[in-house]
Amino acid sequence: MRLKGKSVAIFLENLYEDTEFWYPYYRMQEEGASVTVIAPKQGSFTGKHGIPAKSDLSIHDAQADHYDALIIPGGYSPDKMRRSPEMVRFVKDMDAKGKIVAAICHAGWMLVSAGVVKGRKATSFFAIKDDLVNAGAEWIDQEVVRDENLITSRTPQDLPAFSRTIISALDPEL
């Protein structure tokens, strides 16, 4: 229970990559963190592979001050998430406060839209490498990249390293 007392937000929107949502969701709970699912509105959402998930909170009711970390899954959902100015602002606020912002696969699009990658190291699914580079990131092809409070990974195969790095960042005593 290394994360007891920590609060983690996970973003949700339709067409999320199922494993990139559920793996960190349960992994953070397993370590004792309180996990809140935040979406554009309260309700049900469907993953790329048809697995449903429900949001706990609308982004309109979420405040960055209440969380120690934000996890953004990939799939096609980040393209939908970045259409919400409130979701983009939440990413920007979390980063400005030095809180953990973790993005995997296509979730790098949210980092680009929030303007938080300029001058920083990051990785992503290879297809959005140009987007990150054009936004000023130094793109590195490895399973997980941590640049201070920013944690990024490439694909579902990187989920073990991604989750370990988030846990380690939230529990620096390790």
How do the helices and strands line up, and which of them pair or pack?
Blueprint: E1 7-11, H1 18-30, E2 34-39, E3 44-46, E4 52-54, E5 57-58, E6 69-72, H2 77-81, H3 85-96, E7 100-104, H4 108-114, E8 121-122, H5 129-134, E9 138-139, E10 144-147, E11 150-153, H6 159-170
Parallel strand pairs: 1-2, 1-6, 2-5, 6-7, 7-11, 8-9
Antiparallel strand pairs: 3-4, 10-11
How would you describe this structure to a colleague?
The protein is an alpha/beta fold. It has one domain: Rossmann fold (3-Layer(aba) Sandwich), CATH 3.40.50. The chain has helices at 18-30, 77-81, 85-96, 108-114, 129-134, 159-170; strands at 7-11, 34-39, 44-46, 52-54, 57-58, 69-72, 100-104, 121-122, 138-139, 144-147, 150-153. A seven-stranded mixed beta sheet has the order 5-2-1-6-7-11-10, sandwiched between helices. Strand 3 (44-46) and strand 4 form a beta hairpin. Helix 1 packs parallel to helix 6 and helix 3 packs across helix 4 (108-114). The chain is globular, with a radius of gyration of 14 Å. It starts with 6 loop residues before the first strand and ends with a helix. The relative contact order is 0.17. The mean pLDDT is 97.
